[in-house]
Amino acid sequence: MSAVLNNGNAPLPTPVAATPMGLPMEQPVTASTMHGADAPVVTAPPQRAATEAQRRLTAGADRPSRSGVASPWRPAVMTIVPPLAGLALLILIWEIIAAKNANFPSPMVTLIEAIKVFSDPFYQKGPNDQGIGWNIYASLKRIAVGFGLAAVVGIPLGFLIGRFKFMSGMFNPIISLLKPVSPLAWLPIGLLVFKAANPAAIWAIFICSIWPMIINTAVGVQRVPQDYMNVARVLNLSEWKIITKILFPSVLPYMLTGVRLAIGTAWLVIVAAEMLTGGVGIGFWVWDEWNNLNVPHIIIAIVVIGVVGLLLEQALVAIARAFTYEEVNS
Predict the structure, then answer these.
(1) Could you report the per-residue pLDDT of 47-79, keeping only the tens digit for each?
(2) Domain at 194, CATH number
(3) In a 3-state reduction of DSSP, which class is residue 61?
(4) Using alpha carbons only, how large is the chain's radius of gyration in Å?
(5) Contact by Cβ (8 Å): 209, 262
(6) How far is 18 from 22, CA to CA, in rounded Å?
(7) Average pLDDT of 323-330?
(8) First and final CA of the chain: distance in angstroms?
(9) Are 209 and 143 in contact (CB under 8 A)?
(10) What's the whole-number average pLDDT of the chain?
């Protein structure tokens, strides 16, 4: 019999081969699978298929991808290699400049001088001849005093400006007028009032550090959700409870951002102020080495200033992370 009958009526369908995934395998198109015995045989040209496969292989479409397999060393490499590459580029540019200018020290000469400087950083040979360690200590001590005074005055004032509309209207014009003034412009005022270099430098740090603290604290208070304040009114909370239980936790990220901005500005200002006022300090040390035409020591001081500023900022970032859940390292 030419066909197998099902229940004596209709022929069974032709069996379809299955792939290992359980899906039917595509059958070749032939005359026996088309309607009509005289239908022409249609097949895919083998040369065309081979050419397409070769093109895909050349283009990399059929190659196994390595992106799906994450290397355990990749995070460490991406953390270490880019900074090292940037440092190597900086040293290369430095070496090129030193090769074209005989008065500019090379990286190796500067490194040798740095080893000598840091071999005895706390020597004392007079009031104006001290090691770099004492100069850094003197600058940090001035920053601690001026920055601390700015925090004591600026943060509470920022709370008042953000909390009460009358205080905001009273202090906003003053802040807008005085904030753009360069901190060094205040240095002669400090010298005139305090009649001494050290208090004048502290005054310059105070005046440049207070504005970021006031502004960021006030903005943080103003951005506290109104629902929180409505709940405080319903509960009949005192002003002290509102400040300590509602405002302070909400304002803390803004306040710490202001502190970070202020410490960076203070470190910049103290270097410039010490160049003008003299005495002991990293800024005076830079100016004194310039008077002695000791360029390697000036470069060493620049690197030290950058490292100390970075450490101060990272310390404040660590404090901010410890006290808030906000992302503060941007």
Answers:
(1) 665 666 666 656 554 555 455 455 678 887 888
(2) 1.10.3720.10
(3) coil
(4) 37
(5) yes
(6) 6
(7) 53
(8) 82
(9) no
(10) 80
Place of tokens 């600026």: 154
Tokens of 312: 């101060």
Residue 93 lies in a domain: no
CA-CA distances (angstroms) from residue 134 to 116, 129, 312?
A: 16, 10, 18
Domain that holds residue 225: 130-323
Which pLDDT score, from 0 to 100, does residue 50 have?
Answer: 62
Q: Answer positive or negative: Cα dihedral of 103, 106, 109, 112.
A: positive
Helix (H) or strand (E) holding 10: strand 10-11
CA distance linking residue 285 with residue 301, whole number of Å: 8
Q: How confident is the model at residue 292 (pLDDT cuts 50, 70, 90)?
A: confident
User: What span, in angstroms and rounded, lies between the C-alpha atoms of 206 and 200?
Assistant: 10
257 near 310, Cβ under 8 Å?
no
Domain count of the chain?
1
Q: Is 99 within the bounds of a domain?
A: no
8 inside domain: no
